[in-house]
């Protein structure tokens, strides 16, 4: 990126069936990319041990969530496993206008809403598991989840995967490091896209005028 | 890239005013990217010392070039500094269908023709010099070119630069290594684009069916 040229941040959406490794990829990406931060969602789901309000989520009650929806304060919102999740619009806009990128860990429904609200800023990546066996293994490996939640997730996974054709980029996650490197390349490439660079017209005019 | 999924190669176009460093970037890219090779053009310009027919160019006379145009054998062709250059269609198609990428060092007019013929396979990158002074310095550094050719190129450079808004990606070439890394990221990202991966639908069906 040229010092004379600013850039508008982008919204990086990673979607996948649970168990495809998206959480590990996100964690590693955030470690490696200093201008990328996780979108902080509002949610009605109960706080889990170790989670911090305003950092992991904004934990709000169902009434407050409904008021936020009515005030148009969400870029997208959805009900997942009985709880509500939403992305506050002002939080994201603040980041993008400072040239910072925002990472979204949302499903196909949230992605469709984001696309309607902010298509030009959106870069969408779908992560697929390498095999059904590997997907089952990863879902069962989450010891804290009861069996009926795992079964619900396998069915949810098949449904989620049917939406891969709506995404810009598709990564089959065989190897964490390789997948993270692929997403980093997508970020680097998208940052050099003409339409995300602000001030190119003036820069070229100065070049042509010899100033 | 998943072993079950094939990909169609892409056509990477690098355009820039002469003197912006495109030739150095291309050379380094070809060294680093094993699936990328330079498009071999047909040309009517005289062979220079050290150039090899069929490797640097297919050297043909003006009559043969005209016949090739009439037979529709070029993806694009143009007259540059009094000589004709053209990209043989069959050569490129052969590479793309084998999943190999082809690099094009052509100007905005050639890029427009390629876009008309093969938009879906095209990835276009425009390289800008960091400053007018640097551009002049680089043009004068080409000792083998006479002064009137340098002057012609400065004027050509201003014209060429006016076409930056037609390109997908824009790179300001301040540092060779950084610019090469940016083009490599573009290649890696474009290779993971949904529409360049063949067999994703079958792959996801197998995942969902548990096979």
Would you give the CATH topology of the domain at 6-39 and 100-209 in chain A?
Rossmann fold
CATH architecture of the domain at 6-39 and 100-209 in chain A: 3-Layer(aba) Sandwich
- Can you count the beta strands of chain A? 11
Structural class of chain A: alpha/beta
Task: Write up what this structure looks like.
- Two copies of one chain form a homodimer.
- With 211 residues, chain A is an alpha/beta fold.
- Chain A has a domain at 6-39 and 100-209: P-loop containing nucleotide triphosphate hydrolases (Rossmann fold, 3-Layer(aba) Sandwich).
- Helices cover 43% and strands 22% of the residues of chain A.
- Chain A has eight helices and eleven strands.
- Chain A has a five-stranded parallel beta sheet with strand order 3-8-2-9-10, with helices on both faces.
- In chain A, a hairpin with a 2-residue loop joins strand 6 and strand 7 (83-88).
- In chain A, helix 5 packs antiparallel against helix 6.
- The longest helix of chain A is centred in the last third of the chain and has 16 residues, at 176-191.
- The mean pLDDT of chain A is 91.
- Chains A and B meet through strand 10, helix 7 and helix 8 of A and strand 10, helix 7 and helix 8 of B.
